[in-house]
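User: I'm writing a tutorial on reading structure tokens. Could you give me a worked example: one chain, its sequence, then its tokens, then a sentence or two explaining what the tokens reveal?
Assistant: Sure. Here is the example chain.
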Amino acid sequence: MTHSPLRPDSERVEAALLIIRDLSEHVLARKPARGGGELAHVTRVTTLANLTASIAHEVNQPLATVVTFGDACLRWLDREVPRI
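And here are its predicted structure tokens:
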């Protein structure tokens, strides 16, 4: 509800203009939009989880290779006579 005083020719308020708006439909129309916000949040969290898993995989693959070659080098050096 909004109101405005009406002063046609003087400082004295002679009437008031009241505007009343029914926002029920507007409020009801926004409720599904809030559900969409939750869906967008779940989508962002899922995407972030997938990205994190992908980065972890990309980092772990080279590290596993380094560890494997390091173990092979240690076994090679532990021999009596290393083969060249």
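What the tokens reveal: The beta strands are 2-6, 15-19. Residues 35 and 41 are 10 Å apart (CA to CA).
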